[in-house]
Specification:
By secondary structure, this protein is an alpha+beta fold. The protein is elongated. It starts with a helix and ends with a strand. This is SprT family zinc-dependent metalloprotease.
């Protein structure tokens, strides 16, 4: 478990408590987030999830900006309730006033997209090529049918596959 990240979560809470002069319930912290998101705040569960891969690749900015970003969501929820905008003025107030950071909605970390297999389906149109995901291809194997919107013909698997 990344101790620096846990320590930064606690430090963010201490800053918020000093600023607002009240205690805040500490969240459960999880590192089971993958994909493009750096962090996610689950408001009603008081839980934070962080992407360990992006943390390892962007440690300094992640600790400074991403952790504060997610903690600010939970603090805003505890202060103002569920009916505020996720990146609205209340959240922005916390980012600027408490953490003295720009209220950036999204990170700019380089995210490696995983390669996926596409199954090529065709219809009778001249440019009628449809790359299906493995999940959609499996649905066809179970009897599901997909149609071309232009020529209305059932799409058929061409036998071709490619990695994207």
């Amino acid at each position: 478990m990344p101790e620096q990240l846990i320590a930064r979560v606690d430090a963010c809470y201490q800053l918020a408590e000093a600023f607002f002069k009240r205690p805040f319930a500490r969240p459960e912290v999880s590192f089971k987030l993958r994909g493009q998101k750096a962090g996610v705040a689950h408001l009603t569960e008081n839980r934070l999830r962080f992407n360990l891969q992006l943390y390892r690749e962007n440690r300094d900015d992640f600790l400074r900006q991403t952790v504060a970003h997610e903690v600010a969501h939970l603090v805003a929820h505890q202060l103002f309730g569920l009916h505020i905008q996720p990146h609205g003025e209340e959240w922005q107030l916390i980012m600027r006033g408490v953490y003295e950071l720009p209220p950036l909605r999204c990170h700019s970390y380089a995210v490696q997209r995983r390669q996926v297999m596409r199954f090529i389906y065709r219809c009778s149109c001249p440019q009628g090529e449809f790359p299906f995901s493995a999940q959609r291809h499996a649905m066809v194997a179970k009897g599901r049918r997909y149609f071309c919107r232009r020529c209305k013909v059932t799409l058929r698997f061409s036998g071709e596959q490619r990695v994207e």
